[in-house]
Amino acid sequence: MRYLLQRILFYVFTAWAAITINFFIPRMIPGDPVKSLLARFQGQMSTDAIDSLYVLFGLDKDASIWSQYLDYWKQLFHGDLGLSFTAFPASVSQVISDALPWTVALVGITTIISFLLGTGLGVLAGWRRGSWIDGLLPTTTFLSSVPYFWLGLLAIYLLAGPDSFFPSSGGYEPGLVPAWDQYFIPSAIQHSLLPALTILISSVSGWILSMRNMMVTVAAEDYITVAHAKGLSERRVALGYAARNALLPNVSGFALSLGFIVGGTLLVEIVFSYPGLGFLLFRAVGAKDYPLMQGIFLVITISVLVANLIADIAYLMLDPRTRKEG
């Protein structure tokens, strides 16, 4: 329990530091987002309206940076992430809530599938060295080094087209209204196939490679030899002794992958114009939308910290050596 409390305090401090950096970095970017907003309205605003926009968006020129920082924390405690410049007058929370399910559904499902599939194949490749599965390592090594977005461009070139079943962009057919019905859901699934395939091919290769290497290392340990000497079955030694210990590094990697679900596939969403958080962040940076950028960074930060905490708890459950009090 003491170890867990120490980790929680560490993550609380890390969250404070990340939120503080999240506040200051967008304000160090050259440019004026209010002027960008005025350009959309072709300057048809009075001086009083322009001054009100600066105050409304938390960019009051008369207020010090310290007072803006304190106001930012007050807004966070009230669950208020501000108003989006690009989607004005919609709130940041509303814009993020519209894009978050797309990213979670696409990247979350593919991350879980790739972890389970890659870990299983890695166990087989590491335990049965020299088999046909182990012979796939050169291919998996190459695929794991290829960036997501390059595979995405290749998939669009080879599989997408005017008469193809795979759409090249978007999250659903134009004209459809997002809803849980027989029209929207098949269209959303169809548009997610190519991005999901791109992420799956690249990420599953990395899981296979890492798990295979850990299995080879663990298979040479003395306790594996002792387990064989006891007359235990091959299946029990492979799964109960070798795979369980080899899985520990992959568990932490999987937890971090879950944390980066909301922002780890930025380029994939840009390539496919997929309406997730990555594509939303790309548009926010281009429009200097400070509140939206801060809101997305905050979601990414919290998700990564929670994922790290889950990894620590998983280590406590899987590896008794981490239980210091025991």
TrEMBL record:
SUPFAM superfamilies: MetI-like (SSF161098)
Single biological process term from Gene Ontology: transmembrane transport
Subcellular location: Cell membrane; Membrane
GO cellular component, one term: plasma membrane
Pfam families associated with the record: BPD_transp_1 (PF00528)
Topology relative to the membrane: Multi-pass membrane protein
Keywords: Membrane, Transmembrane, Transmembrane helix, Transport
CDD domains registered for this protein in UniProt: TM_PBP2
Transmembrane intervals: 9-29, 99-124, 136-160, 188-209, 254-275, 295-318
InterPro entries reported in the protein's UniProt record: MetI-like (IPR000515), MetI-like_sf (IPR035906)
Domain ABC transmembrane type-1: 100-311
Family named by the database record: Belongs to the binding-protein-dependent transport system permease family.
Protein known as: Peptide/nickel transport system permease protein
Species assigned in the record: Pseudosporangium ferrugineum
Lineage: Bacteria, Bacillati, Actinomycetota, Actinomycetes, Micromonosporales
